[in-house]
Amino acid sequence: MVNVEYHDDLKEVQSDAALARLLGTETQAAPFDRLAWWQLLAEHCDLRPKLAVARNGAGHAVLALAGCGGHLEQLSNWYTFRFRPITSPGAEPLLDALAQDLKRRARRITLTGLPQDDAQALCAAFRGAGWLTSLEQSDVNHILNLSGRDYAAYIASRPGKLRTTLKRKSGKVATQVLTHFDPAVWAAYEDIYAESWKPEEGSPAFLRAFAEAEGAAGRLRLAVAHAADDRQGPALAAQMWTVEGGTAFIHKLAHRESARPLSPGSVLSAALFQHVIDTDKVTLIDFGTGDDPYKRDWMEQVRPRYRLDVLRPSAPANWPVLARKTLRSLAALAKRG
């Protein structure tokens, strides 16, 4: 017997022992897969959760959705590296039940940031339930697999330009890597970010709350750089990483444009790479999404991320969308012909 339920109130999920365990740190080794992450999204990012949960007595399948009305999306934001369904071991077939039951709840569902295997599994489940599906690559994820290397071996394999920069600038920049949350360092990060080339921060309150929680859990790596000859002066660069399950996640980095001649961002990155590789002994480093050129200097592999769009063909509100998709397909065929 399969039961499908929906939760708009995440406190209900927290009070369900089996479900809370599936979505907790004991089971999930990435922040984006956990109930705590979704709670922060709901609290600070004005997202309206709708967790779809299928259970059969032996396991669960969870699809963390958001929104209201007929069009649902994934429960995530710009800080989320990737989105995927969460299932108990062996409970993957429950995705079919979710896809079937969601026809009563939505006319359209759009999911972005999906890893390839998860994208294909969800696409098959929705297609099997009678949805019209569209799957396309939407982003990339840069990673580094250490394959047993220590920091010295890793840095020796970096591009010559980067190694030269580090050799020339490291003596001019002093770095500090913290494994706990420090309000003064966080204030420095926010000040640097405001002066950096980065766009306006999406939700500073969300990011700080996440950093504080990760610091309390011992997973935070918060780093700051100063000019070596002015260590009491303003910080020049700051970065936020987290470490768990053998993986280091690079969440945020920023440097002052005025300090660019010192390359404080590169020097600080090197300090963090050395720390997570030689001290934390991670096996993988994840640089999140986006194909920024500088990531290629540090990373070695690229993984695709996908966007899955599914529509109920019988819903009249979807017909204009279907018409546009059909016209685009015909135009693409004509162009190829």
Automatic annotation (TrEMBL):
* Entry protein name: BioF2-like acetyltransferase domain-containing protein
Start and end residues of each BioF2-like acetyltransferase domain? 163-296
Q: Which domain of life is it from?
A: Bacteria
What InterPro entries does its record include? Acyl_CoA_acyltransferase, BioF2-like_GNAT_dom
Pfam families in the cross-refs = Acetyltransf_6 (PF13480)
